[in-house]
Amino acid sequence: MSITHNLTTSLSSTSSAFLAPSSFNSRGHVSLPVKSVGICKCVATPEAETGYKTRVTRNPNLGKLQAGYLFPEIARRRSAHLLKYPDAKVISLGIGDTTEPIPEVITDAMSKRSQALSTVKGYSGYGAEQGEKPLRSAIASTFYSDLGIEEDDIFVSDGAKCDISRLQIVFGSNVKMAVQDPSYPAYVDSSVIMGQTGLYQKDVEKFANIEYMRCNPENGFFPDLSSISRPDIIFFCSPNNPTGAAATREQLTQLVQFAKDNGSIVIHDSAYAMYISGDNPRSIFEIPGAKEVAIETSSFSKYAGFTGVRLGWTVIPKELLFSDGFPVARDFNRIVCTCFNGASNISQAGGLACLSPEGLKAMREVIGFYRENTNIIVETFDSLGFKVYGGKDAPYVWVHFPGRSSWDVFAEILEKTHVVTTPGSGFGPGGEGFVRVSAFGHRENVLEACRRFKQLYK
Fold this sequence. Notes:
Blueprint: H1 3-11, H2 60-64, H3 70-84, E1 91-92, H4 104-116, H5 133-143, E2 154-157, H6 160-171, E3 177-181, H7 185-193, E4 200-201, E5 206-207, E6 210-214, E7 233-237, H8 249-262, E8 265-269, E9 294-299, H9 301-304, E10 312-315, H10 328-339, H11 345-354, H12 357-383, E11 388-390, E12 396-400, H13 406-417, E13 419-420, E14 422-423, E15 434-438, H14 443-457
Parallel strand pairs: 1-13, 3-6, 3-7, 7-8, 8-9
Antiparallel strand pairs: 2-10, 4-5, 9-10, 11-12, 12-15, 14-15
């Protein structure tokens, strides 16, 4: 029996699809607590009420940024919606925040490390800024076995997003960035803050001096590299957030060769690599020659539910050199040692447990659960006649609403179904006309959201 059939059956079982509770328990013996709906407020900093001003000028690059960062803006609109409909059961399938409990084999390790800190023998203070040696070694052997990546090429951090900004500091303001369009907003915003861009051009909805590499259904969500001007730094996310597209081996080979031909550096964001189900590369270092032109950043956030625990890593091979022959890793190490005191030792204990045989098995089970959610969402929109992309190798479903403003679709869905999604244009001009639906959610909430989608668009 298909998931769609089950979903259709559940749709007909209630006359109050929007507000009816669900008794669905996907794991039988496991009880998953549902988070209570709270109001998340984004509060703007008020202007000083006195007439006094300092003589310090504002960073003009921050003045270039448009509106608020995407996800706080979504939280603000969600809060406004809750004020309007205080009794509504709002379901969040917008921000990519995990919902399922962290497996016990991982939390047990963090608990033991935490308890040990209260003993003389188990206490530890500052650790190596680059991360603890056993964890770096485990990352190398688990994700980069036979790829020529060694433990001292790996920098453990408090998350991939934080490392994106640290890498921007390394490269400075006199570089030209290229990004997939659409792409994760942190790439563009950090580039703006660093002073790498010109002003925002409202007519094309782009910042000057950034190369927006359009990725759409027509080109298989992989940019036409022959049509772009030479960039210094290329941000490339595979599987992609938000489209869910995973680059093939041939495509990544093209990207590496393009970087070599142009003397560019690729920053490969592989935060969703464990969701890849086919033969597509999980690391850019599977491509010959990539160590000379690429950096890879990744995270435990979407594998083990570490969005709040905070733990990730960045790989910078020794072979990667600046134009003067200086190793990029040495400059990144200096930035790490200057701006960072190392990831939490408790988080690193959890990371090490993630990479144990039991931890890897538990992470794959959680990823499998989110894949099931993704299938439910894809089948729902397919049944409604929408063009749906992604969902195979990533926990995101990219739904096409041709000819419509993505913010208007976001508002319509929120107003009429009380479900939070993410407007595609928040990821760049190439996202206009799309909405991203996240598969991160409790199963009963995903089923309920899909019932509401069916009632709205049937």
